[in-house]
């Protein structure tokens, strides 16, 4: 019995350390890039933190925790549910943009965010959008839904508390980044949207145990977000 208790404690300790090491990476990237206005250093840190976010969870799971390699292939369905939720989110995003408009984000604010990275040039923005939808969003599902949500499940058990906490961690670096460019009301509204999205993505993952199924909803929501961004910067 004592050995079992000690094993559980060790498992939770490893889960907590892994959670902290991975969860801090997006905030490090945001603080370096936006708070410190670090230029080239920010770009280097951005690349390094992406490598950190990709490599550390896999290393931690396979080498530290002794887990088996997995490609998170869907075995329990969920494609239709995820697609419908993604479409629903896209519709809500579009309605929020047309109703609230400048309360969420002004054209000049978005230009200020994107211009230092050259993303106000149409072809560069198009490449950036493809990266965010097909690479970055997959990475976010891998990190926030698979690794972080799973670690929270190990630490706390249950279903909804890990889902809500992982959504909060997912929202944090978005909120910090937006704080440097938009007013508090716009940031609060955008952060609420990100949090709700994080809850939905985490719920999908917990239900179906595949980052690919959760990514479908994420990608559809991102299409709506970046269509608005394209409209604001380039026009149609």
Number of domains: 1
Share in β-strands: under 5%
Radius of gyration: 18 Å
The low-pLDDT segments are: none
Through-space gap between termini:
66 Å
Helix content: over 70%
Number of strands: 0
Query: Class by helix and strand content?
Result: mainly alpha
Q: What multimeric state do the chains show?
A: single chain
Report on this structure.
There is one protein chain. The protein has 236 residues and is mostly helical. It has one domain. Helix content is 81%, strand content 0%. The protein contains nine helices and no strands. Helix 1 (2-23) packs antiparallel against helix 6 (122-156), helix 3 packs parallel to helix 6 and helix 8 (184-208) packs antiparallel against helix 9. The mean pLDDT is 88.
Explain briefly what this protein structure is.
This protein is mainly alpha-helical and 236 residues long.
Q: How would the blueprint of this fold be written?
A:
Elements: H1 2-23, H2 25-35, H3 40-64, H4 79-100, H5 107-114, H6 122-156, H7 160-178, H8 184-208, H9 211-233
Helix pairs in contact: 1-3, 1-6, 2-3, 2-7, 3-6, 4-8, 4-9, 6-7, 6-8, 6-9, 7-8, 8-9
